[in-house]
Design a protein that fits this description.
By secondary structure, this protein is mainly beta. It is built from one helix and eleven strands; from the N terminus they run E-E-E-E-E-H-E-E-E-E-E-E. It has a single domain, classed as Cupredoxins -  blue copper proteins (Immunoglobulin-like, Sandwich). The strands form three sheets. A five-stranded mixed beta sheet has the order 3-11-8-5-6, with no helix packed on it. It has a four-stranded mixed beta sheet with strand order 2-1-4-7, with no helix packed on it. The chain has a two-stranded antiparallel ribbon with strand order 9-10. The structure holds copper (II) ion (CU). Copper (II) ion (CU) binds next to loops.
């Protein structure tokens, strides 16, 4: 069901300097994979991370991270995609959106990880399939989910 995810455009939050309790993470966007995202984990407390997202290219890429409550949100996400993935009304809160990054461009933002199911994807369009449906980078491997358990 995660195979057909398109995206949206929301202005990024301003970058903030990491506090002493934060950890840093580097996420790398390549053709066509998301590298360095968190693994599933348990977390009894909120975890703040300073994420630096870098497009290692060569293509244009974008990272969007949504926080779902759990897998019961997935049908709603799929329906959102089927409706054309309104850029203004995502079905779940946006944790991070880099907007489109050129090759070697970076984006830094603090990310707060609370328990939930996270969906990360790049939805830069690649073209259309034989049925005329838009194929984006999430269809080519730039799609990742991870769980933060309470
Ligand atoms: Cu991409």
């Amino acid at each position: 069901m995660l195979h057909a995810l398109l995206g949206l455009l929301v202005g990024p939050s301003p970058a903030t300097a990491p506090a002493a309790t934060e950890s840093a993470r580097t996420v790398t966007l390549v053709n066509y994979a998301l590298v360095g995202l968190p693994a599933d984990s348990g977390s009894s407390t909120t975890r703040d991370e300073q994420w630096t997202v870098r497009n290692a290219g060569p293509a244009l890429h974008q990272l969007l991270v949504l926080r779902l409550r759990d897998s019961t949100d997935l049908p709603e996400v799929a329906a959102w995609i089927a409706r054309g993935a309104s850029v203004l009304l995502p079905p779940a809160p946006i944790v991070l959106n880099t907007d489109a990054l050129l090759r070697n461009e970076s984006f830094t933002q603090r990310v707060r990880l609370t328990p939930g199911l996270y969906l990360a994807l790049c939805f830069v369009p690649q073209g259309r399939d034989a049925a005329g449906e838009i194929v984006d980078h999430s269809h080519l491997g730039m799609r990742y989910t991870f769980v933060v358990r309470p």
